[in-house]
């Protein structure tokens, strides 16, 4: 049903990504499809990497590590931006077409009042793409 | 780690897609410091924060302390802060002037030297912004607002002082004329006045910004250090830069930027309000000024949330377009031939007088060299962490030569044209037509009185007001971005609410001091930070040369 799953990841906060990564593993196995992990990094040095290349290396290493979990082909796509916090949504929306994904799986937070001013990334992306978007919320606990 | 093995590793992991282009060899500094390692991060408040614990806390406390102190003890602190500034510009004028010359000479030398070939962000880095967006942001951040206020008034001021000749009391010059003045010689006084103005708005201020911006850009994009003021000190202090010496530099940068912006916003609101009152009869009350600050802050927040590219870049381009239209209008409708020939004459006058104007020692025109030049240098330098950091942020992908030509030479030439058109027209109105309105108007109204003598006054004055307000918005926007990056330990990807927080703080300080008094006092304090930052900039010069020497150039 799906030919390529795009998974936006934030290498600085891998721990919170776990629920979505588990879902990606299950979906990739089920549909036997390629998974493309996408990371947006600042062109200035960040806590994860000091250059975009270093970020790409880390993202590729992360993708390979995920491949061992689901056994499907993987790719890594790094996007560098001078203002990643503000441009994140637009860059991810563009990346969906660039990598040719037809399903996006990403983590989001439960709705909150602040969303009126600053909408969640997942919500914004879902309204701006024709790909399917699977938003995963942290487990209720 | 040695560079070869780093390059090999980079080649092995060459991205198949995504990164615009391989960035090529650069020479990262090998440090164990991880950006953000001293940060406090939480999302338990309903939104995320990610802040450098010490820099943020101390900056916030110092800010509150100074605002409360100024509000509570206004009568005591105002003379004190003003005295500090005046003492610095009177006694250390030679130091400011000398340092300014060092910055210009370094920049000019770098343009022609082989080091100019080094590219910010690695040899194959691609620029993040187009030329038009980049220029517009350089200008808006650098001095857009100043050109609006001083474009008419400064040439007029120097012209008037030069015409008045020199006066000596007890062997000391008491006049404010530049150099030897030009008593009762309108042509010579105009040339001297324009040369002095261009000196204050040309190569020297832009060299100040260029030094900070280049040092930060090299150490961040090429050396891999965080985009924050302390990184400039790495060649001198090494790993100690991550400790208290670095904290102090960063806190001082936050202090200078925040108070510089907040007081300018407060004073600017009162000036814009005077303009609105003059043009449209809007009552010049506290309520008008507070509404102006609230409006500017609100639009700045929208712009901040939109990000650099869709916010400040777009606003800067709009303003650049409006400013060009206004400039063309004044050139075409004003004394066209005088302005066009004046551009070259004034450039010539600048070249002729530059050496004398920039001479740090044995000056007889103390009022001018201390009260104008040294004050301006301290002011530009106190703004340099803000403007320099913002310029650094948007300049990745440019070669050092391209960067310096764009930051130093192009804005200087535009300033010459702007000053010639606006100041020259006002001088022409006075000398040619005998119109004394501009000369007699208050500083904030001189632009509008000058425009009032040209056709379509209502439209051009309205454009003038819009330009002033939008320049304030872009300043508030880019300033909040800079303060946020510094207080987040150099992280440019810290959560958005922090930027909004700083924009609100700027507005709140501006309103508090506007209503409670003390704007001028705190601005004097902010300008006084020019002294420590002159030392920072001199270190920056050393860092630039050292940093560039170790970069690949081919």
Order of helices and strands of chain B: HEEHHHHHEEHHHHHHHHHHHHHH
Radius of gyration of chain A: 14 Å
Q: How much helical structure, as a percent, in the residues of chain B?
A: over 70%
Q: Please name the CATH topology of chain B.
A: Amino acid/polyamine transporter I
Helix coverage percent of residues of chain A?
25-40%
State Rg of chain B: 23 Å
Low-confidence stretches of chain B: 1-22
- Contiguous helical run count of chain A: 4
**Shape category of chain A:** globular
Q: Please outline the major beta sheet of chain A.
A: 5 strands, parallel
- Helix-strand sequence of chain A: EHEHEHEHE
Residues in β-strands, percent of chain B: under 5%
DSSP strand tally of chain A: 5
Report the structural category of chain B: mainly alpha
Number of strands of chain B: 4
> What is the end-to-end distance of chain A?
32 Å
Protein name (chain A): Universal stress protein
Organism (chain A): Billgrantia bachuensis
Domain UspA (chain A): 1-137
Describe this structure in words.
Chain A: It holds the Pfam family Usp. Chain A: InterPro entries: Rossmann-like_a/b/a_fold (IPR014729), UspA (IPR006016). The complex is a heterodimer of chains A (141) and B (554). By secondary structure, chain A is of the alpha/beta class. Chain A is built from four helices and five strands. A five-stranded parallel β-sheet of chain A has the order 3-2-1-4-5, sandwiched between helices. Chain A is globular. The model of chain A has no long low-confidence stretch (mean pLDDT 89). By secondary structure, chain B is mostly helical. Chain B has a single domain (52-549), classed as Amino acid/polyamine transporter I (Up-down Bundle). Helix content of chain B is 72%, strand content 2%. Chain B has helices spanning 3-12, 53-72, 74-91, 93-112, 131-142, 144-163, 186-201, 203-222, 234-237, 244-280, 286-333, 336-357, 366-394, 400-431, 437-440, 446-452, 457-487, 496-516, 519-528, 530-549; strands at residues 39-42, 49-52, 168-169, 172-173. Mean pLDDT of chain B is 87; it is low at 1-22. Chain A binds chain B through residues 38, 41-47, 50-54, 56-57, 60, 75-87, 98-99, 112, 114, 117-118, and chain B through 9-10, 13, 15-20, 22-23, 26, 28, 34-37, 46-47, 121-122, 128-129, 220-221, 224-227, 305-311, 393-394, 396, 490-497.
């Amino acid at each position: 049903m799906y030919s390529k799953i795009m998974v936006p990841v934030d290498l600085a906060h891998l721990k919170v990504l776990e629920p979505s990564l588990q879902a990606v593993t299950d979906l990739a196995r089920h549909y036997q499809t390629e998974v493309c992990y996408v990371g947006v990094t600042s062109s200035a040095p960040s806590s994860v990497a000091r250059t975009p290349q270093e970020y790409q290396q880390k993202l590729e290493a992360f993708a390979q590590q995920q491949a061992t979990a689901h056994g499907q082909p993987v790719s890594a796509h790094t996007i560098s931006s001078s203002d990643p916090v503000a441009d994140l949504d637009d860059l991810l929306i563009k990346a969906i077409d660039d990598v040719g994904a037809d399903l996006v799986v990403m983590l989001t937070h439960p709705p909150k009042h602040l969303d009126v001013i600053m909408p969640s990334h997942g919500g914004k992306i879902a309204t701006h793409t024709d790909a399917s978007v699977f938003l995963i919320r942290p487990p209720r606990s | 780690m040695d560079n070869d093995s780093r390059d090999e590793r980079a080649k092995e992991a060459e991205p198949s897609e995504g990164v615009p282009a391989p960035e090529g060899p650069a020479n990262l500094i090998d440090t164990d410091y991880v950006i953000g390692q001293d940060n406090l991060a939480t999302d338990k408040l309903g939104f995320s924060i990610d802040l450098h614990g010490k820099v943020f806390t101390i900056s916030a406390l110092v800010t509150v302390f100074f605002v409360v102190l100024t509000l509570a003890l206004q009568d005591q602190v105002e003379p004190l802060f003003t005295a500090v500034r005046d003492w610095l510009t009177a006694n250390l004028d030679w130091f400011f002037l000398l340092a300014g010359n060092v910055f210009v000479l370094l920049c000019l030398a770098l343009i022609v030297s082989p080091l100019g070939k080094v590219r910010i962000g690695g040899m194959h880095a691609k620029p993040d912004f187009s030329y038009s967006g980049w220029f517009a942001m350089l200008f808006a951040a650098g001095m857009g607002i100043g050109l609006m206020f001083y474009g008419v008034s400064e040439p007029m001021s120097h012209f008037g002082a030069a015409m008045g000749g020199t006066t000596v009391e007890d062997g000391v010059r008491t006049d404010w004329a530049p150099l030897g003045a030009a008593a009762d010689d309108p042509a010579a006084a105009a040339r001297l006045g324009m040369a002095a103005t261009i000196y204050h708005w040309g190569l020297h201020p832009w060299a100040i910004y260029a030094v900070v911006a280049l040092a930060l850009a090299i150490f961040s994009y090429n050396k891999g250090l965080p985009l924050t003021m302390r990184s400039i000190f790495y060649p001198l202090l090494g790993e100690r830069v991550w400790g208290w010496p670095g904290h102090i530099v960063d806190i001082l940068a936050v202090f200078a930027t925040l108070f510089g912006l907040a007081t300018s916003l407060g004073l600017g609101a009162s000036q814009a309000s005077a303009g609105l009152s003059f043009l449209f009869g809007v009552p010049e009350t506290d309520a008008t000024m507070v509404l102006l600050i609230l409006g500017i802050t609100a639009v700045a927040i929208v712009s901040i949330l939109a990000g650099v590219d869709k916010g400040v870049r777009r606003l800067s381009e709009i303003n650049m377009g409006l400013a060009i239209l206004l400039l063309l209008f004044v050139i075409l409708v004003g004394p066209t031939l005088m302005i066009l020939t004046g551009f070259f004459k004034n450039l010539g006058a600048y070249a002729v007088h530059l050496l004398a104007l920039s001479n740090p020692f044995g000056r007889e025109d103390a009022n001018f060299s201390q009260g104008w030049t040294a004050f301006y240098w301290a002011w530009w330098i106190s703004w340099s962490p803000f403007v320099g950091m913002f310029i650094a942020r948007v300049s990745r992908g440019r070669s050092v030569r391209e960067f310096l030509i764009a930051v130093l030479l192009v804005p200087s030439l535009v300033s010459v044209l702007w000053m010639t058109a606006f100041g020259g027209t006002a001088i022409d109105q006075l000398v040619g037509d005998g119109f004394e309105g501009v000369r007699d108007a208050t500083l904030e109204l001189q632009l509008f009185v000058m425009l009032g003598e040209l056709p379509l006054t209502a439209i051009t004055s309205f454009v003038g007001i819009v330009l002033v307000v939008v320049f304030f918005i872009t300043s508030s926007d880019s300033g909040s971005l800079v303060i946020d990056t510094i207080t987040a330990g150099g992280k440019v990807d810290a959560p958005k609410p922090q930027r909004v927080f700083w924009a609100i703080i700027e507005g709140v300080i501006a309103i508090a001091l506007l209503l409670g008094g003390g704007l001028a006092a705190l601005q004097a304090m902010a300008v006084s930070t020019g002294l420590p930052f002159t030392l920072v900039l001199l270190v920056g010069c050393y860092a630039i040369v050292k940093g560039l020497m170790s970069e690949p150039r081919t």
